[in-house]
Design brief:
This protein is α+β, with helices and mostly antiparallel strands. The protein folds into 2 domains: 6-94, Phosphorylase Kinase, domain 1 (2-Layer Sandwich); 101-328, Orthogonal Bundle (Transferase(Phosphotransferase), domain 1), CATH 1.10.510. Helix content is 34%, strand content 19%. It has 12 helices and 12 strands. It has helices at residues 47-59, 101-108, 113-132, 185-188, 195-212, 225-231, 235-243, 253-262, 273-277, 289-296, 301-305, 323-326, and strands spanning 6-8, 11-19, 23-30, 36-42, 69-80, 85-94, 135-136, 145-147, 153-155, 162-163, 178-179, 327-328. The strands form 4 sheets. Strands 1-2-3-4-6-5 form a 6-stranded antiparallel β-barrel. A two-stranded antiparallel ribbon has the order 7-10. A two-stranded antiparallel ribbon has the order 8-9. Strand 5 (69-80) and strand 6 form a beta hairpin. Helix 3 runs antiparallel to helix 5 and helix 6 (225-231) packs antiparallel against helix 7. It is globular, with a radius of gyration of 20 Å. Its EC number is 2.7.11.1. It catalyses: L-seryl-[protein] + ATP = O-phospho-L-seryl-[protein] + ADP + H(+); L-threonyl-[protein] + ATP = O-phospho-L-threonyl-[protein] + ADP + H(+). Keywords: ATP-binding, Kinase, Membrane, Nucleotide-binding, Serine/threonine-protein kinase, Transferase, Transmembrane, Transmembrane helix.
Length: 329
Amino acid sequence: MDSDRGRIDKYIILRTLGKGSTATVKLASNIETGEKVALKLINPDKLSSMRIELNALQLVPEHPNIVKLIGFSNSSWYFRTEGRTRLVSYIALELGKNGEIFDYVQKLGGFPESIARRYTKELISAVEALHNSGIVHRDLKPENIFFSENFELKLADFGFTAPIKGRNGMGLLGTYKGTRPYMAPEILEKKRYRGALTDIFSCGIIIFIIVVGRPPFFRAERQNPHFQHIVNGNWERFWNFHKSAPNTPDFSTEFRDLIEHMLAYNPDERFSIDQIKNHSWIIKESASLEEAQRFLSAGSDISERNESFVEGSRIQVEVNRKKSEDCVL
């Protein structure tokens, strides 16, 4: 008998999808409707994370590229099939039925620019909705981006969100939070930072990965030789390094300009959301949903083996698989 099976309220627990530092995520089925959901069971000592995530999901208006909040409970009985029971807190969330975008990059490599552009627009739209609602994400990474059943992008995992204006309304944050390979340099350097601009930096890394198939650098630290080129403004050396790697696509002038302005070391030099939306690379023609579906269908077995809504616990950039080191609380 599957030890994961059991029942919580109107949900039948089917199996475990993943475990993170704050929660265990279960695949569950609604007894009344048969709908499958991601049931995030919160560790008792991490209830503050649940409150933060709930607050974020309730603040943001329903958006096609943000995972939907289906329900939650502060205290419910978890009836296990072997007869044990315990009290749990949970959040029921829309299931990313086609898995993480990262898995598709791993299998298929970088996406054609027209398809990457489509999902860049959806990602930026989701981040803009967060920012317009007064919050910043602070843990943007491919492992927190999922595909719906129709291969629409869904942004998830809002446990690290914070007020865009800062805790004191002055516009600055100071908490060292995020996942290191995707964190902006000002956070890694433990400076006070503007959350919206650190989200932009993380988006720049994600877009680079989607197009190129690998991260731009190991981590945004001065001692990293590839990021050092960015710190010193030696962008030609940065691009030449990446062009020399096998299976690297040609970088258009527009793509290079977008990435350079999103990954700028100086936060003041980074593009705003509006500048990104109106950039020449972004406004080019994007792939249709049908074209994107055809391309991604080559990785469809990913969703079959990983019907997924994992809580961002896998940092699997090519150069770094040390999960315990890189998810910073």
